[in-house]
Protein 1
Amino acid sequence: MTQNQYGLSRTIDALTKRAVRQRCGFGCVNCGCAVYQYEHLDPTFADAKSHDSDCIVLLCGGCHDRVTRKLLSKETIKLKSKNPKCLEQGFSFGPFDLGVIEPEIIFGTLKCKAVLSLIRILGDDIFSIKPPESNGSPFLISAKLSDRDGNEILRIEDNEWITNSDNWDVEVVGTNITIRRELGDILLSLRSEPPSRLVIEKLEMSYRGTKISANENKSIKISKQTGQQLDAGGIRIEGCQVGIDIVETGLTIGTGGGRVMIESMTISQTRPNPITSRLSKLYPQLSLPPFKLNHLRKIINQWGK
């Protein structure tokens, strides 16, 4: 049925969907799973005259099936919708489907296969892969992805992804995950291609003074606090322990064996702001709310002039 008795279409507009996601914390109100569907709770879709975001909840397939089979009551879901699981625990979660075949990870124009750590910053693995723990089990991906101010927006732990409920918007459509800072401002767009490929379509992040900008089919750009910049139109790394290793004194591409194929790449050096560099060394884990951080940057820039 595409329309109910009042002529209401099943298609929910984007604005209403976003309001529902924000209210529910970007996951199932009952269990917190971030693989969800939109469910008209009260009234049900059959009796609804409009798509009211306050009357719609997010339910995962499992919880939705339990409600349909009357193993989980709608009264329970109504209570859960007042205190969604994701807001209670501070995050939502979901699984990645990876198989027993060595996965290929595409990070903008950086393509890696059989690489244990794709990107390492000051000793921290930003994106890493572990081999199967036993025969027939999948490869395991882990990652720490942050926004432009260094605040974590998505974490992956052994193929389970976890997103912070403090994000402005997290949208899951099929195998795509999109995280927005505000309307039209995409911080992360990620696509899973089961069973052996994961694609970072877009990422704008900062981690301990290093900025990474990645867009599918565009150059990946890495900028260090020291002023060193890498701009790569295409890099393929296979069989290495570390793809890109970023340390205080510089960066290395492809370490620990394997091979590196470079289509185009430039490395340049700009003069760093001495105040910013000093703050980075004194407070490497500095994390402030965006407003305060932007205000601090303005002060630093004035000092540096």
Protein 2
Amino acid sequence: MSHDTSDRVRVGPVVPWFTQNSVPWIISGFGGLSVVFLVGWLIAFAGLLEIADILLSCITVGGPALGLVWGGYLLTRSDIDKNRYARVCKWCLGGAVGFLGINLLPMLVVPWTLAGNLSWAQFSVNAGGVAGFAVGYVEARAIQREVEATAATVRAEQLEDERALLTYLNDLLRHEVLNSSQIIGGHASLLREQYEDERLRDRLETIEGESDDLVGVIEDVRAMLDANRGAGTGTVDLTALLEAQLAECRARFDDAALEATLPDAVAVRGNQGLQWIFSNLLENAIEHNDGDAPRVRVTVDAAPETVTVTVADNGPGIPEATRESLF
């Protein structure tokens, strides 16, 4: 028998030091480091510098350095996708190295003092970095706008295809299923009137009732399809719509007490889907009430921009787990 006595060391995932989120802070940090370098340069060569030299260095070196600090912050506040941060950083680095390379030749051909060459080099790096950042930022914004425009076009085409499909389904339900259901119900009603056999009449009555229920379901589905595809959207008198639905429920459910607090008239934007929504809300509030005397109260609160409709009942309510799937 052998025993494994070797030590096992778990190594966690290696976190890269460079991530897309760190790019803006690298740019700002580079600008901040340049400011520190400028301060050190001023201290180191303070005895050799005149006031004009100090002011010129603060403007030509400190200005671009602060520009880089602000540029990194600007990048975090922009709507540019984080996946393009690295591209902006490459432009910034390329501008700094490129402009420094351009200025190295005159620095070598026309030697200056050590203080002057260091200031010149730092100016080249900072100015080139700011210019590169500006180019990268503008380019990234342009790419972002193009991508968003393309995505919007694709989404519009998808919505158009979805509307076409919903229209087809609506027409199919209306011409094929709904008409057939109404024909079946009509024939069952005619046959029930012609025959006196109670068993046959009961079966025909069942067929007629099921046909009516199927017609109601189809109408609900069509209303839902119309609501989803935005068909016939316009101004709807919400008060009149609710009053009609309440009157229908009072006629269907004698044992239910329905109360309403409605304004004289409230105009909202909507379509046939509103009627379907409130019809189902009221029916569910009554049919799923396990009390002896179901009570339902409807209130409407109109605000300048919105209208809130509250349907409350004395039933058991909807379980929390079911609410997430319903709403």
Protein 3
Amino acid sequence: MTRLAQWIMASPFNAVLATLLLGFSGIFGWAVAVPATMAGLRHGLRAGVLPLAVALAVAALHWSQGDLTLMGTVVATWCGGWALGASRSWPVTLLITVGTSAIFVVFMQTVGSSQLVKLFEQYQQVIGSLNPDDAVALKGIPQALFLQLMGIWVAMSAVIALFVARSMQARLYNPGGFRQEFHGLRMIPSLSALCVAPLLLIQLWPDAEAAAGLFLIPLLLAGIALVHGIIGRKKLGSAPLVVMYLGLVLIAPVVTPVLLLVALADSFFDFRNRMA
């Protein structure tokens, strides 16, 4: 990873080439804005303009072929990178990132509704070609849930892309810096309130659920970071982390609310300092 980061940061041409390779790689397409974000974090926004333009062009091509999420991921990643460079605050960065993703969801509900309908129809056609038993179960997914899943994909892809960009940059210029930043990730009360407040919109506008729910992602990540931080300080090894991530996969409806509540409580009580 260090050599890859060195190669990307060596020249604007390398950053553009990396963007193209990621954009057409298929499985790593979500990371197409990573080179632009790395350049922007290190050298300022201007340094990332060229690879960003290429990333947007790639996303536009994907859009024309029916992949609507990549454009949202690119914009959310870049906005998050700008926020991180300007504020040096991960909580603020995460809020900006999910906020941009929420705007993308609202855009898809309104201006891009026709594109969303086409994509949903394509999804139903693909599902219909599956095993009949699976098709019946999956085809029952409503369009609102489909949009919500799209929003989660955009937001999480952008967040992971930001983590990758910052981690690779830290390997070059500040070894261990990203680990320290992630272990210290904590929402303050005012930012926690901003995460929870959009949920009130659901009572007034039920269609806002797909966008408003994204604002819980920073709290969830803060909860995960708290567990990482405590385990790192106490040197408990990787076993507790394995248990946590298995819980997130296997019993998410139980583990996710616990992490959200722990992160919310941590914003008021700062458990790390109390345990120091």
Protein 4
Amino acid sequence: MRRWSRLLALAAAAACSNDTPTAATPGPAWHFPSSDASWATVRPVEAGFDSTALAAALDWAGEQNSSAVVVAWRGRIVAERYWNGWTSQTRGPYFSAGKTITAALTLDLVSDGALALSDAVSTHLGAGWSRAGTAEDSITVRHLLAMASGTDDSLRRIVAPSANRFYYNNPAYYQMFGVAAAAGSATFPQLVQQRILTPIGMSRTLLIANEDTGEPGFVFVGSARDFARFGILTLNHGRWNGAQLVADSALLARARQPSGTDNLSYGWLWWLNGGASHRTPGSYLLPTNAGPMFPAAPVDLAAALGLDDKKLYVVPSLDLVVVRLGDRAPISGAVSPAAVSSFDNAFWTRLMLARPGTGAGLR
């Protein structure tokens, strides 16, 4: 009851605020920050936000174990908040939210002709990569991007035909590091540094070797601002300050469309809002859930989601990028969420209260 009372109070505050925008605000061209020191800012009202309600949304995020939240509109920082001793330079793990960076690199290699989505994974990793015998021959790069390899976590057993069943399989995803390295004739860290991180100024982002899945791979560790840069690149379809840096625009946009019929809310390593149904990480036997993942959020929102509520949200219709880093939010429960959590919809309920007049046609 207290929660709903607070939301109603926020709505009332938004309605009464002196700087509440009354219509969609026309704005400037996109800003592409050359450095953190040169990152432009914009007042909330100029970006279509009510400042009181937006501050309340960030206050709530801070109560939910957040260490960093960045809200950027057309590349300009609208709001930025840090807790727990963090600053704009503090690094934290992106965990599975970093999968989206891997997707961008993979599609850049596809754009260059170094590999094809239809390539069998064994073309690049050799026979025996999955330990599932000849059944692995039908598993392609596209299947790994869609979380539809058909293998179980051990990579030894085929539990569903490739492409027919969504299963959030981290050991299978970890094969993407080797595929990219083989196709790009360099190590994965070298490729992602040269093609993505350095060109867009993600200078605080590192790759840390990780074998938590039982397979060799990497975890991206970086600042909230760095992750916001990647969100800006994404909303500009791989363009940065006029230059097409990553893949071709149509291919990169395709990553944020449904990758199969079994999960209408998953693209190529991106989570998608607005689908008629959605599936979440867990057993193959988990039921499909009706409706979108985040009912309070815009239907065109796409999300990079990681363990313990690591979040990057991009919203094309609002030219909006939102990053949240920190520890698991209390609202998400006692079990650490692998991706989708209760934090998402609760946060977006509050963010949309700060966007008066933008709900129609977006939810």
